[in-house]
User: Fold these one by one.
Assistant:
Number 1:
Amino acid sequence: MEIQQLRDHSPDKFASIALAPKGRTDAQEGNWRAQEKAIDDWLPINARRNAKWWYSAFHNVTAMVGAGVLSLPYAMSELGWEAGVTVLILSWIITLYTLWQMVEMHEMVPGKRFDRYHELGQHAFGEKLGLWIVVPQQLVVEVGLNIVYMVTGGQSLQKFHDVVCHDCKHIKLTYFIMIFASAHFVLSQLPNFHSISGVSLAAAVMSLCYSTIAWIASASKGRSADVDYRLRATTTPGKVFGFFGALGDVAFAYAGHNVVLEIQATIPSTPDKPSKKPMWKGVIVAYIVVAVCYFPASLVGYWAFGNKVDDNILVTLNKPKWLIALANMMVVVHLLGSYQIYAMPVFDMIETVLVRKFWFTPGLMLRLIARTAYVAFTMFIAITFPFFNELLSFFGGFAFAPTTYFLPCIMWLTVYKPKRFSLSWFTNWACIVIGVLLMILSPIGGLRQIILKIKTYKFYQDYPRND
């Protein structure tokens, strides 16, 4: 969709009119509003508003159930049975509650929709402060996840290659990351959430399939003869750092809040049928799928292998080869969809800045250059730092916990102002305390993981093979 420049105004003149609404004439006001509506209709988040509740379901599954589910048995080995089960259940309940709050707040102001996370933050904290609070944290999560998915997609392709062709010449991880990225150079040109629905649906199905394969294969293998359920670390500092790192791994598994408002923006809304009803229906279905994926994979994987489980359960499961190869390809398909789900809000931010701040003409060329540059950037970082998972467990701890656990609660207290000492008041403050602890503790555990990985990593050389 090409948007032509207004006939009566140059970009500079148009900018001055837009920034000084009190000085506009009626004709200029009409031109300005028409231009703004045309830009809104072009941007990815606002382009289509005809999604159904099931779109919400599989988009949220794709956003939530990432390849991180395969590391949950490893997190259990650093938490132990009691703490591990408690953390898994509490995280599921708390994040469902905070997600419900965000769905409710999407249309808290009559006649207005907060289509983006930062718009809700601006309403709660103020125009400028809201941007500074929300946008940096949201970008850390979304861009960070895209880089992690680049690394994990390359690793899954490499694992598939090594399983089906064990005697073949070893190929560096760098090349598999580039192969995985090549698909995104194409998929990133899909304009909006509606256009990636097919990819997202396939990704949601694959996430359910490979997590099911992980726990069924573990159950079929049975409990190892020398299984040990003591904590993985043997020293007190190791146990403490491992515990903190495991909290970050679990928090990493619930990152869907960063795109939930953008997903809800695709659903039509009227006073009689607000978007929160179909959105919440889809969220409930998504969280049931999340439970079906997370809990069996975590508990059965830890039950079968104890503290000997790898940080990716599919690495621990080497047989049957055909099934493990299939599961790794399912991970690749899922990551294709997950990358796009988290990239779409970033594309929206980039294109909004280019069009509204720098006055580029919206169109195919702008989208082609901007999105290709973004995919190239995430690919470059993934190739340079293929231990980025550990980096994200450190830096992401400052962003995952706020955007998922306590920012929604703070905004709820700020906007809805529940009665002091009421159940809602106590619940939100409890979630805030838990989120703050996660934000402080998980980076500490991530720092230890970074140090351990850097000791075994040589820059510009291949990441060490797991075999």
Number 2:
Amino acid sequence: MESSAVATDLVDFLNASPTAFHAVDESKKRLKSAGYVQIFEREDWDLKAGNKYFFTRNHSTIVAFAIGKKYVAGNGFHIVGAHTDSPCLKLKPVSKVIKSGFLEVGVQTYGGGLWHTWFDRDLTVAGRMIIRNKKDGSESYLHKLVKIEEPIMRIPTLAIHLDRGVNDGFKVNTQSHLLPVLATSIKSELNKPASIDDSIGNGAPNDGSKSSKKINPGGEQHHSLLLQLLAAQAGCEPGDICDFELQACDTQPSIIAGAMKEFVFSGRLDNLCMSFCSLKALIDATSPVNSLEDEVGVRMVALFDHEEVGSNSAQGAGSPVMFDALSRITSTFSPDSKLIQKAIQRSFLVSADMAHALHPNYSDKHEENHQPKFHGGLVIKHNANQRYATNAITSFVFREIAAKHNIPIQDFVVRNDMPCGSTIGPILASGVGIRTVDVGAPQWSMHSIREMCAVDDVKHSYEHFKAFFQDFSQLDGKIAVDI
């Protein structure tokens, strides 16, 4: 029952988070409800020991932290890091495609998705829009999240009669085959509102006066039908949409399923499962009245965007956002610039990203002695070539916390004859210089539009992260390495 309660909360988080923007928005709501105060990177920070704060960057990365009441500048940060993005299909800057009498939506692949799983799914769009707001004769521009709830698109497969060899290998051409169908041209024309200017929609000559402030100049960027749907959802006029970042999304909700109700079926488990577990752990580890009374460090969760494409962006783990947070918090309590180096050496990062569970139909894909299983708890990831940042000290710390609380733990090493993925762990370990362990809950179907993991492992992950926040300060004081 306890495992199910945590997993049910995860399902609610997943269903509220079709995109990285929505995941950050949902995280903000939960943090504010728990007494965390929003601060802004553009402003000065006035922080106090014993208080809780968060900030966002690009509304797709979020950093939350709670300062111990016994914290002094130079003390360490206890961090769980994860990411908010998942492989998906993102709308192109010019998404309007018309072929063979059909309205299609041009998309580009984001990350390394299992693209064949996107066929024959009921799709919609979600993301953020920049909307022009006119009031009292002046203009301002609003950032607004949007999701069209009903299915509006589909990528149909080709009938087997027209591709007899498809079962020998379904090869997807991501440029020509992966376009969602929005409508037929005939129906689109019949249902076009009278307010739509046909001269613009048909691409007729235009002096710019009618479209200079619209996202759809000359009707060439996006289908008017799509803009109408988005405007109706956002409560604005199509002409007030200045720009957007949208992606295709599956409309099937996340659920707890399986004959024994032991699984979570959902998209975006990689890596919203770890984002949720770390966020819930931080909130619950800092909510009791005296939870920060004896804390000497800063408890932190950092959820980054763009991990799936290398983290090299202003809001990715490769940006200065982590160092900026650590240095600004430290400098708020002391002007001594040398204390940040001391703080980093006293800090610890848990890089949390989902792991590959042993698949019964492909057991040969796992190394014989490293086969993570469902219900077995978080997986510590090792790689001698530093694709993961784990070492003996950092894995010991994480194991010791698990042993103290009787939480199961597992290990993973990729086979020598297979390539190894990576995480934000090595990026932050090398970029900031912070001790790091790479971990993740086991799952199947990673990077599919529909993934799955075990309900028990959601609970194990949450409990492990919560124990880390509560116990690390005391345990770290007993470890001697560079002496």
Number 3:
Amino acid sequence: MRLTPCSRKSCLSWLSTTALSLLAGSTLTTAITLDLQDPNSIKSAASTCAYNLLTFYTGNNTGDVPGNLPQPYYWWEAGAMFGILIDYYYYTNDSQYNDLVTQGMLWQVGPDNDYMTPNQTKTEGNDDQGFWGMAAMSAAEQKFPDPPSAQPQWLALAQAVFNDQASRWDNQYCDGGLRWQIFTFNTGYDYKNSISNGCFFNLGARLALYTGNDTYAQWAEKTFNWTQAVSLMDQNYHFYDGAHTTLNCSDINRVQWTYNAGVFLLGASVMYNYTNGSPLWQERVMGILNATSIFFATNPPNVMYEVACEPPNTCDTDNYSFKAYLARWLVASIKYAPFIQTTVMPWVQASATAAALQCSGGTNGQMCGMKWTQGSTWDGTQGVGQQMGALSIIQANLIDQVTVPVTNKTGGTSKGNAAAGGGGGISTSNPALSQNVITRGSKAGAGILTCLVLISVIGCSWWMIA
């Protein structure tokens, strides 16, 4: 199978369809009990999903590295997982995993406290770093317990990631934007994609609101406008995967992923709030939200699915997790743009009910598959992404039970540092960095696409995603 740069980094070797069917058919279907009218039931279901999620995490085992997931998972997905576990504490007030999350988040900060870890040079792109930065931002906004004073602080970590990425803005090709990769020697350095720019946009919007520093908002506006101008977002607010610098971004790959819609929706909702209800940002929020309907099935109605890979059964390790991010960012957007709630919650409720039914596999009868549209008929898959998806959509139903995320003016305690970060390979000081003069040496991305071969008597299959 031809592998394209637009695909994300992971390759998955998995059991044959026949074997999966046999495994699924032999598992007792107990599923997770979920009553959306009962907050305690929602918390109980979320607790089960969180527990099962962490059965895949080995970073707290003796001799293993905190903050890392085992193969076939890439480093970025660990950052995404910690972000979802920070959400878990926010929604449920269950603190049993907080120490584990803090340990992992701080272990991976790198020598410049900006999530540029030397041992991830060949696997870290701008999107990867962005997921860790957004997790740190969530910790600041949701008042996740602050690290010890001698350790890096959540807000400063988010600022460091933003500063690094601002230094990589590339005006030479496609009139701006971030490349997918950070380092020139990695496959995909010639690719600019929606998720890398979406993470930067999302983080800039949230930093603007949290700190009150308008420079972050200016960067967010600039990034959104560039995404639209280069046609990674069309006039109907559909977000496409990416395009190549070698063709001046004229070859738009029109694959649509849930997480691209989600990352831009939350950023736009925060900008709506930051601008005190700007009609322009309201229009953008509603445009993105309406376009997001492509990811919700008509049969069964309102159930989220990954339209690019679920129907043809081509989802891989990374794809399995994408719905988790749309789920969490859909409901997070409600706190900043309340007018979307009547559209969002029917999707969330239907999807959560279906996801709980799909948590009917594995040896315990409660491991979650990906295909929520199949209800209690387990699809035969299980893993970090599937667990994060179910956890995110289930706990999202507690959105009315939690407070609005804080800022430094409304109770935020996380300490910031506007000059944080190592520049991702160059010198950078703060978000006021010139938006026009960017050093080319910093603009690249990591992410050599290394396939993990799992040898099995049943066989293996290969795929890669953007």
